[in-house]
Amino acid sequence: MTRAPKSNLAATTGADPRDPTLTREDWLALALKTLVRDGIDRVKVQIMARKLDVARSSFYWHFVGREDLHSAMLEEWLTKNTGPILERAMRPAPDVNAAVMNVFECWVDTRLFDPELDIAVRLWARRDAKVRQVVLQADLTRVKALTEMFQRYGNGPEEALIRARVLYFTQIGHYTLDDTETPETRVSHAPTYMKIFSGVEADPAACIPFMEQALKTLAASKPARGRKRRDV
Predict the structure, then answer these.
(1) CB 3.0–4.6 Å: which of 106, 107, 174, 199 could bond 113 by disulfide?
(2) CATH: 3.30.70, 2.60.120, 3.40.470, 1.10.10. Which one for 17-65?
């Protein structure tokens, strides 16, 4: 890893402020947790340094400044929340509903798609034009991958685009509402969702493995943070 150039603040500090156990990833992880819990206004070097119990100048051994941190936060969001959607949309499948189930994996596993981080970045984007452009491009990239997925299974360009939008916008909208359904109820709707999204009746037998795995994944996941704020 290439170390960020030492800033004037770090360069003029007498003692080495680095904690040998503290990494760039530690700062980034705290910044993302703070973004989700408190919003971008609280993603400040002094506040995070206090939480990490290190000198503020320690930050500048890993980042040039706040803009550098913000870029790293957005890159992490793109990697975590866009990469898995693209991979699953492009994954070979025997039929369109199997392809849709591949994408559904992202919606039930927060390791593949972190909905709270997605919401937090979107709220940030409302206040920052540069971030908004990143978010808009990410949405276009995700929808494009889903559109191409539907086209591979016989949908024309326009129909594939609308199916992709319905699938994607429905899920993103779902995340903006507090999820009150039990995992069992949520998963039970999967075959009907597939029919609506794909236009093809889902084979109940083919849905069973996905539904069983989805229930296990949801049961094993931590309670959603939702509106509640989690301690860092």
Answers:
(1) 106
(2) 1.10.10
Each residue of 86-134: pLDDT tens digit?
Answer: 999 999 999 999 999 999 999 999 999 999 999 999 999 999 999 999 9
Phi-psi region of 53 (alpha: psi -120 to 50; beta: other; left: phi over 0): left
pLDDT tens readout for residues 174-183: 888 876 788 8
Domain limits, the chain: 17-65, 82-220
pTM attached to this predicted model:
0.83
